[in-house]
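In full, the data.
>
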Amino acid sequence: MALSRGRRYEAVNYWPGFVDALSTMLLVIIFLLSVFMLAQFFLSREVTGKDEALARLNQQIEELTNLLALERTQKSSDETKIATLTATLDSAEREQKRLKDAAAEGVAAADAGARAAAATSALDEQKEISARALAEVDVLNQQIAALRKQLAAIEDALSASEAANKESQSRIADLGARLNVALAQKVQELNRYRSDFFGRLRQILGSRPDIRVVGDRFVFESSVLFDVGKADISGAGKQSLDTLASAVLDLEREIPPDIPWILRVDGHTDNRPLTGAGQYKSNWELSAARAVAVVQYLISKGVEPDRLAAAGFGEFQPIDQGTDEDSLARNRRIELKLTER
C-alpha cells in the first residue's frame, strides 16, 4: 500500500519539465523578435538610399521646370515686342511713302511754277520743302533699317529660346522616365523584401495563435495583454511587453538618429457595444486607452517617447468580418507597426 502511494506521487511531478518548456518558448520568442527588428533595420536603411536618389531627381525636375517657365515668359515677351516693332515698321513705311509722294508733288509744282511765272521765291520754297521731305525720308529709312536689325535679332533669340525649350522638354521627359523606372524598382524591391521577410516570420510564428503577422504589422490579441473591458496591462502582458521593449531599445541603438522611424501602437476592439456602466463609454475610448497604456509601459521601460505613437480605431477596422466568438477575438487586438514618422 505504501509502495503504491509513493509511485502515484512520482507520477504527477511534471513541474521541472514544464518550467524548462516555458523557458525554451521564451527564448524562442526573444530570438524571433530580434530577427524581426534586425530585418526592419536593414530594410529601412535600403529604402533611405532610394529616397535620397528620388529626392535628387525631383530637385532636377523642379529646376528644369522653372527654367522652362522662364523661357516661356521670355518667349511671350519677345513675341509681343516683335508685334510692336512690326506695327511700327508698317507705320514708318506708310509715312515714308507719304513723304516721297509729297516730295514728288513739291518738285513737280516747283517746275510748273518756274515755267509758268518764273517765281524764284516759290521755287526755292518748294525745293526747301522737298529737301526737308527727303531728309525725313532718309531718317525714316535709317529707323526702318534699325528696326529690321532689331527684329532679326529678336527672331534669332526666339529661335534659340525655342531650341532650348525643346531641349529642356527632352531632358524633363528623360528624367521623368528615369524617375518612373526608379519608383518601379523601389516598389518591386520593397515588395520582395516584405514578402520574403514576413513569409519567414509566418513560418516561424505559425504555432502562436495569439501573436501573428498581418501584412507589415505584429498583431497581439487583446487577451494577451488585457483583461476583458480593461485597459490595465495584465501580468502576462507585461512579460510580453518587456521582451518587446528590450528589442525596441536594441533597435534604437542600431538605427542611425537621422532616420525618422517610430513604433506605432494601434488599438482595436470588436463591434459589440460597451454597456456604458464601466470606466469606458465606447469602443473608441477603450481602444485608445489600451494603445496609450502600451505606449506608456514601453516608455517606463526606457523607450524614447519620440519613437512611439498611439492611436485608437475602435471597432471600425476589423480584420475578420465574421460574427462568431473566434472572429470577434481576432478583431480585439493591439497592432505594432514600425514605420516612418
Summary: Confidence is low (pLDDT under 50) at residues 1-9, 189-194, 196-206. Strands lie at 211-214, 217-221, 261-268, 308-312, 333-340. Residues 245 and 298 are 6 Å apart (CA to CA).
